[in-house]
Amino acid sequence: MKPAILAVADSDSYLKLATSFLHRLGPSWDRRVVLARTPVMPTDEQIAAAFEGTDLDPTDLEVLALNQFNAQTVGEDIVFAAATGPVVAELYARMLRTEPVDQRSTALISALPGVAYPATLKGWNYRRPGDAFICHSHAEARDFSFMNLDNEGHQPTIMVSKLPFLRSSGFPTDSSAPIKRLVFAPQAKVPFGKSERESILVSLERAARLNPGLEVMVKLRARAGEPQTHLEAYPYDLLFEELVHSGRLGKSTHLRFVTGSMSEVLTENSALVTVSSTAALESIDRGLPTMVLSDFGVNADMINVVFESSGLLGTLQDLEDLNFEPANKPWLRENYFHRVDNTFNESLTILAHRARAGQLKTDPEILAYIKHQPLRQRVRTALPTPVLRVLLKIRRSINLSRQPNSRSLS
């Protein structure tokens, strides 16, 4: 019999991770993907974008409440928790509480949907009860391994794979095509301030005016008010409307705002700019000119420290001048563009067979750990979606009123 895997996602970026991961495993596995019912569930357009390019059928996608997951309702050998931290923790807890301690038959694995460097203790603790945690680069694997040194008790096995939506087998081939389209990929969390985000839009407009014939696009993960993985204090499409209304941007602007799949906008003659986004890796993967803006800092708070020695850092002035530099090959090797063999798939298959044979055990320390999950985390995954959305909006308003430049964490 084929090994079987269930991927549980809860937002647009995690659904993309789930579908691309299952697609890469291929038909030698029995594969199923479901959405956990949460406030960050993707829109129909985001769902279509997540399934694009895979051999999975979006009409098969189920939506289930977290309280529907337990050892009796899940028949797969592996549960791939492709979800935000509180949802992963609650899913793990529900599975572990309902399975035998010494003969557990469901393996629990998880991963993050993009750049996960530097490692964070908060993200690690949500996923610590699992059997394995998947990293997508050697740099990430080393950083997360330090979590094992600092924490006693059970730790998941760190496995190294590759982001499943990257197609290159190693170093991508750089494109020599002239730049005809400039794509800006926002990150919901950073930069934090309204003025910083406005400066990006102004520079994008200047780039269009300084380079006649250049098409400039802002590729949104979601339009203002639509759900996405992280809360966004200042959506770019709303900022754009304010800039036009105030006269800082002319009404005959060159900027276009689009949603949908990144693969649709990253055409052969494209270049990509971001502050911190996994889209940079998609662009590099296609051999396209790629820039990570450094004007607002390069550090852990900006979620872009991983690009520090990449050769891809540039300024808003570089953006306007279309001054792109190639990535450093040593950085590519350590960060997401390593060559892969079949070791990861073999390890995953072995884990599935061990689960099917009832050979997994639950550490008593983990059972004690999940009994004391924070109430805030349990409430977040249990409240009805409309109620939780109202509470999240209230919290965001309070955060913005207290500290305008603070980032909002989901």
Plain-language structure description:
This protein is α/β, with parallel strands linked by helices and 410 residues long. The protein folds into two domains: 4-166 and 339-396, Rossmann fold (3-Layer(aba) Sandwich); 181-334, Rossmann fold, CATH 3.40.50.2000. 38% of the residues lie in helices and 14% in strands. The protein is built from 15 helices and 13 strands. It has helices at 12-25, 44-51, 85-97, 121-127, 138-150, 194-210, 236-246, 262-265, 279-285, 316-321, 329-334, 343-356, 364-371, 375-382, 385-402; strands at residues 4-9, 30-36, 62-64, 78-82, 107-111, 132-135, 157-160, 181-185, 215-219, 255-258, 270-274, 290-293, 313-314. Strands 3-2-1-4-5-6-7 form a seven-stranded parallel sheet, with helices on both faces. A six-stranded parallel sheet has the order 10-9-8-11-12-13, sandwiched between helices. The longest helix is centred in the last third of the chain and has 18 residues, at 385-402. The protein starts with a strand and ends in an 8-residue tail after the last helix. The relative contact order is 0.15.
